DNA sequence: AATGCGGGGAA
DNA sequence: TTCCCAGCATT
């Protein structure tokens, strides 16, 4: 066991020394403001540092203090998060900021129970905030840390299992040098990001290579053990890009998604599921599809005539792969009834769902009081769209007038 | 314990 | 193109 203790001591000491030399200059490392640390940690969930940096800068510029965030309209927070993904992070972050204002006078709490109680803050982020912002000796075990520890200590447990994270937390807690929690936890993650990478780890420049058990065994390439996620299921959808006419000239029809579920409360172009297509890779249906879309729009209070099939788009979420076919429509003279918008496409949605899955129709029928709007390009600056619709609208931009 | 929830970068 | 990355909430 003496061997193990020495190996741990060596690990922590060498790692800290390496971090002092190698740490990156990141925007949220320039001061130790708990609010900044918190925002950065939420953004960094499932997201690389390079992607986060510009978002972090804009976010802090727009919401410099926790109070600013708490008081802002939710749409502005979502707009600031547009393109970053996992939008419940943004909504939870703001809800938690309001929590802090109400329960803690606007000051980020410095104890475990209160931090862990914040919306969107789980075991990892709790540890990250307490250690990085307050230098408290709490472990912060993310994917980087599990990869580093699984290799250095030759741990073959599947890191996708809940129990493995608990094990790693206990191990990580015991490695934190007294008084150095902030630097040590960041050092661990930095090593995982820069040296002990998922593929082709840079062992030759690793500060702890000499005692890395996986390296000694030649097992660094097969660790960590990780069960694979299910592949995303394909989904085919028909999208309507409706150009307004008359009082809606120069505008395009968009709608806001429901309060919960996929892309909650984000804006999008109207779309309905395509009926299931027989055969593998048969692609999207064409002629009848456009008619169904038109019928849906008509029932929604928008009379529109098809112009052309505009483009195809694909987008992969973690669990769904969207195949989209976008049709341009032109609003017809006498439409423009703005009350009653919504019911039509909801019906189309239900009927299409029935074609592809008769059993599921009950679940998709009733709801949908979706909010529809005719927007100008300038309105895009205020409404948050998922990337896939941004791509479509960007393609359309030259024609939008 | 299993599932829902985005998007980007590297091979 | 295809593959890989992976915290938190909910059920």
TrEMBL record:
It catalyses: Hydrolyzes free adenine bases from 7,8-dihydro-8-oxoguanine:adenine mismatched double-stranded DNA, leaving an apurinic site. PANTHER family: ADENINE DNA GLYCOSYLASE (PTHR42944:SF1). GO terms for biological process: base-excision repair; mismatch repair. It is an enzyme of class 3 (hydrolase). Its EC number is 3.2.2.31. This is Adenine DNA glycosylase. The keyword Hydrolase applies. The lineage of its organism: Bacteria, Bacillati, Bacillota, Bacilli, Bacillales. It comes from Fontibacillus phaseoli. It comes from the Bacteria.
